[in-house]
Amino acid sequence: MEALRQLLDSLPTPAPEIILTGDFNFPFLKWPERILTGSTSTEKSQAKLLLDIINSSFLVQVINEPTRGKNIIDLLFINNSDAIDSISAEKTIYSDHNLLRIFTNYRKTMLPPTVTSRTEKNPFSSLNFFSSQVNWERINDQM
Question: Is the pTM of this model over 0.85?
């Protein structure tokens, strides 16, 4: 958690748009209420640290349906709620976690290809700078 805090604290001001997602594995942290239930003191301190980090970075957790069993443990934090178009959690045969399908409002800008021309011409001999070091006669004799 401390590495996450350092990473977020190192971002320039104003902060860029942040999308942070992963399996945080806090089944005892209930979303969206942010209520801690039935956790050990170590788990509780880690969860409180996470909540402190997201609060200080102005992040909001937006997954509101179970991602594993009845728990929301795969989380998505953002600092711009307009960035997310839709989210769904779907069962999959590949994992005991539901598959999160997250669609953003970001669109890839297609730039035209850059065309460059080379004005300098290289002779073919300069392409193989080891050519003069090869014993071509010996190679030819061995063939």
Answer: no
Nearest to 100 by CA among 85, 88, 91: 88
d(CA 62, CA 108): 23
pLDDT tens sequence across 36-66: 888 788 888 999 999 999 999 999 999 999 9
Per-residue tokens: 125: 């001999």
Please state, in angstroms and rounded to a whole number, the distance separating the CA atoms of residues 58 and 48: 15
CB 49 within 8 A of CB 29: no
Based on C-alpha coordinates, what's the Rg of the chain?
Answer: 27
Residue of 36, 34, 24, 27 lying closest to 70 (CA atoms):
27
**In the structure encoding, which two tokens stand for residue 107, read together?**
């669109």
